[in-house]
Amino acid sequence: MASILIIDDDAAFRGGLADMLHDLNHVVLEADSTPAGLHLLGTQAVDVAIVDLRMPGEDGLAFLRQASTVSPVPCIMLTAYASGGNTIEAMRLGAFDHLTKPVARATLLETLARALQQRSISQAEKDPAAGHDAHNAPADPHELVSSSEAMRQVFKRIGLAAGSEATVLVLGETGTGKELVARALHRNSPRADKPFVAVNCAAIPSELMESELFGHVKGAFTGALGERIGRFREAQGGTLFLDEIGDMPLPTQAKILRVLQERELTPVGASQVVSVDVRIVAATHHDLPAAVKEGRFREDLWYRLQVVPVVLPPLRDRLGDVLQLAEHFLRLIGGDVPKRLTPAAARLLVGHTWPGNVRELRNAMERAAILSQGQIIDVENIDLQTNAAAVAQPDINWDGSMAVAVAYVEREMIVRALASATGNRADAARRLGLSRQQLYRKLAEFGLE
Ligand SMILES: Nc1ncnc2c1ncn2[C@@H]1O[C@H](COP(=O)(O)OP(=O)(O)OP(=O)(O)O)[C@@H](O)[C@H]1O
To answer: Fewer Cβ in 10 A, N or C end of the chain?
Structure first.
């Protein structure tokens, strides 16, 4: 039940609309002019205003201009005839939507439902205890976000290991946050004010690996026109993150082992050793014990690295983190006014299996923020790479019956049609051979609206 303010000088139209809204159990407030409407807005609880654009004296645009200073609520504008100009002006002034009279009951109800949804989202922003959490502090791109039990164990381990000099090996599928863990170890260590240097071992050609890591002297090889200090010495006093260490060539592995043991290295072409004071954090998505068995990774280095192993669970094993992460990324993108997910969009995200883990979620949120207009991200703005397969059946548990199997297939077909129609419901309905009304009913039935 919501409180809806109707402002229209046409008493008959107002009365008809009020009856319809009463039937739907809403509380209705009526005003015949902008000043009367502003008075009600300032003195009564109002969730949505439905405002006629053309009224004698101060019109609906005047109401819009003043309403935000009295009490900001979503305003649906009504006119007997629409022109591009007044639509643009109304939208520019912050109208929620713009409808033409006579308004079809279904269209009005659908718009009202969206407006009420926006209302509840912005209420939750104002009052974190009321719903979604709202963070006023700016989002930190290096923050590890999670509230799952599996990640709590990871945080504990980071906390315990950060203060020590122990070498840490971070294991996990691609995109699970291994680099963020390495940064967290550094940021919480006594080395925090010294450099953090990240090297992606898989991205460096093997013939350049030694010079990249250990540096070289001038003239060490053709093309070595000057001296280079290399990544180890760049990280002096701080932390060196060796990402994708499983892809490191065997000869370099032997040299890394020596640095770990002796704490000194020899730059390429140099005759003198140089001491280094660097804490090593390494990471890989490979199965290192298997690589050891196959002779692709040195066993002694494996033992040296995994003094403290940290295993990151894939996102599909901590789906409880998905919405928190999604909102975190929307805050990173949107700053003070991040876009919000509708409940249906949130359900879609939680139903996905995230083969690309947190990185895939971050990319999906970046795309959705671009593809959505306004402040709301809905299902049609979310383009998941493996959309149809990934919308796991959160609402359908097959009990062996034909009816449930059919429902499952229908849902799958609808998701696919919406994906191919890039979210356009009329187009999706055509592809499915359904009327729009039938599609809307199905969307509601399957919780996809
Ligand atoms: N728990 C988390 N909280 C916030 N952001 C995260 C989290 N986990 C990962 N990310 C973000 O997801 C993206 C991928 O994370 P990261 O690069 O650390 O993964 P990775 O495991 O090192 O990937 P790869 O194996 O491909 O190198 C980054 O943008 C990172 O900021």
So the answer is: N
Q: Of all atoms in ligand 1, which is nearest to the CA of residue 151?
A: 1
21 and 165 share one domain: no
The reply to whether ligand 1 has any atom less than 6 angstroms from the CB of 381 is no
Backbone angles phi, psi at 359, to 5 degrees: -60, -40
Q: At what angle do helices 436-445 and 402-420 cross, to 10 degrees?
A: 120
**3 contacts 32 by C-beta, under 8 angstroms:** no
Tell which residue, 67, 60, 66, has the closest CA to residue 99. 60
351 in the same domain as 230: no
Do 302 and 391 lie in one domain? The reply is: no
347 lines ligand 1 (CB under 6 A): no
Which atom of ligand 1 has the smallest separation from the CA of 182? 18
Helix axes 60-70, 84-92, angle to 10 degrees: 10
Question: Sign of torsion, CA 204 209 215 220?
Answer: negative
pLDDT digits (tens, 9 = 90+) for 76-125: 988 776 555 566 667 667 778 777 777 778 888 888 888 887 776 556 55
> Is the C-beta atom of 176 inside 6 A of ligand 1?
yes
Q: What is the pTM of this model?
A: 0.61
Same domain for 15 and 161, yes or no, is no
- Pull the structure tokens for residue 266: 């020899």
